[in-house]
Write a structure and sequence with these properties.
The complex is a heterodimer of chains A (about 110) and B (about 120). Chain A is mostly beta strands and about 110 residues long. Chain A has no helices and eleven strands. Chain B is globular, with a radius of gyration of 14 Å. Classes of the chains: A mainly beta (about 110), B mainly beta (about 120).
Chain lengths: ~110, ~120
């Protein structure tokens, strides 16, 4: 087994601020994902990475940057926080192959004042 | 395109009653869809409840069942007798080989289940 750790757990930012969220996994999984969850809108894919140093845009990549520094970590940056923005960011990982089960972290809750 | 539609919540049932949460999918770009139910219990992270990767098969976990029906493009979640501890948000998700095997999942909006004692 393994776990996914996300930091910070809560993030309060100011409008226009650049904010970075971090994700670590010890599953030794190849692929990692960042999702955004807004109330009543389900999960939407922001970025994903198939392997170290790979980056792929998801459906909601505008306004975000990502970085896969090493196999175990995947960071997401909100390039300019929007006023009154409130969402939960979920990190996930999965192993390479046809098996599609993703394992999720506990999430980072963002609030922009 | 690829999409998932599930029962709009909240769904409220009494303990020991039966439950069905509907899920239908559209998989236009996925040759062999995999289907999942994820659950988020209060205060916990999103976790896999059950999955089925072959059409016609049934998955089960914690008393819940779901059958992958390719003809009706459905994957409804059922339980014969719910408990208060089943109160959670349930997400139906669609995945499968999508050119490069990225493993992307497409989620429904989630259904909040409230079980009354």
């Amino acid at each position: 087994g393994g776990i996914i750790t996300q930091t910070p757990k809560f993030l309060i930012g100011q409008e226009g601020q650049k904010l970075t969220l971090k994700c670590q996994q010890n599953f030794n999984h190849d692929t990692m994902y960042w999702y955004r969850q807004d109330s009543g809108k389900g999960l939407r894919l922001i970025y994903y990475s198939i392997t170290e140093n790979d980056l792929q845009k998801g459906d909601l990549s505008e306004g975000y940057d990502a970085s896969r520094e090493k196999k175990s970590s995947f960071s997401l940056t909100v390039t300019s926080a929007q006023k009154n923005e409130m969402a939960v960011f979920l990190c996930a990982s999965k192993d390479w192959g046809r098996e599609d089960t993703q394992y999720f972290g506990p999430g980072t809750r963002l609030l922009v004042l | 395109g690829d999409s998932v539609t599930q029962t709009e919540g909240p769904v409220t049932v009494s303990e020991s009653e039966s439950l069905i949460i509907n899920c239908t999918y559209s998989a236009t770009s996925i040759a062999y869809p995999n289907l999942f139910w994820y659950v988020r219990y209060p205060g916990e992270g999103l976790q896999l409840l059950l999955k089925v990767i072959t059409a016609g098969q049934k998955g089960s976990s914690r008393g819940f069942e779901a059958t992958y029906n390719k003809e009706t493009t459905s994957f409804h979640l059922q339980k014969a007798s719910v408990q208060e501890s089943d109160s959670a948000v349930y997400y139906c998700a669609l995945g499968g080989p999508q050119g490069g095997n990225t493993g992307k999942l497409i989620f429904g909006l989630g259904t909040t289940l409230q079980v009354q004692p």
